[in-house]
Amino acid sequence: MSPGPSRGRTPGPRRGAAAARTPEGGGRRGAEGGGRRGPDPGGGRRGPNRRWQLVRAGSDAVPASTRRFMARARQRRVRAALPWAVAAGVLLLAGLVAWTLLGTGLFGVREVRVVGADLVTPVQVRDAAAVPDDTPLARVDLTAVAARIGDLAPVERVTVDRQWPDTLVVRLVERTGVAVVPQGDAYAVIDRTGVVFRTLAEPPPALPVVRVARPGPADPGTRAALEVLGVLTPELRERLRDVHVEGLARISLRLRDERTVFWGDATRGAEKARVATALLGQPAERVDVSAPDVVTVK
Question: 276 and 261 in contact (C-beta within 8 Å)?
Answer without folding.
Answer: yes
